[in-house]
Amino acid sequence: MFITHISPRFAETDALGHINNTVVPVWFEQARAPIFRFFTPDLDFKNWKLIVAKIEVEYKGELVYGPEVEIKTYLSRIGNSSIVITQEAHQKEKLCAKGNATMVHFDYHLKKSVPIPDDIRKLLNEHLVVA
Question: In a 3-state reduction of DSSP, which class is residue 42?
Fold first, then answer.
């Protein structure tokens, strides 16, 4: 599991003083970087090997400006060519949002999904959490 700490910015709030619902998917994407590095260690877009097939976010409670947000990132499924990354946003030790991103290992030259190599699969398995 990876832990990322986010300091909410004033600009990320809505008219009610909550963190806008469009911000959480951006935070989740930022917190997926350690997993991106398994596939593309230098994060060079010329060598990128993943595409997003699906994202979903479930809001469990309000997030507000001020207190730090802790994003927990782990894998909940590893398939032949895809993974499901599960993420949780906690503020003041309370679960406020949870989401899943299905990512596909993709060959941009062939324009198709390809199997996840064994060396990367081994790294991914270290962060697999089965509920």
Answer: coil
Q: CA-based angle 120:125:128, to the nearest 5?
A: 135
Tens of pLDDT along 28-70?
Answer: 999 999 999 999 999 999 999 999 999 999 999 999 999 999 9
State the CATH class of domain 2-125.
Answer: alpha beta
pTM of the predicted model as reported, rounded to 2 decimal places: 0.93
Average pLDDT, the chain: 96
Is residue 77 within 8 Å of residue 86, measured between CB atoms? no
Burial of 13 (0-12, 13-18, 19+ CB in 10 A): middle
User: Which H or E run contains 58?
Assistant: strand 50-59
CA atoms of 66 and 91, how far apart (whole Å):
10
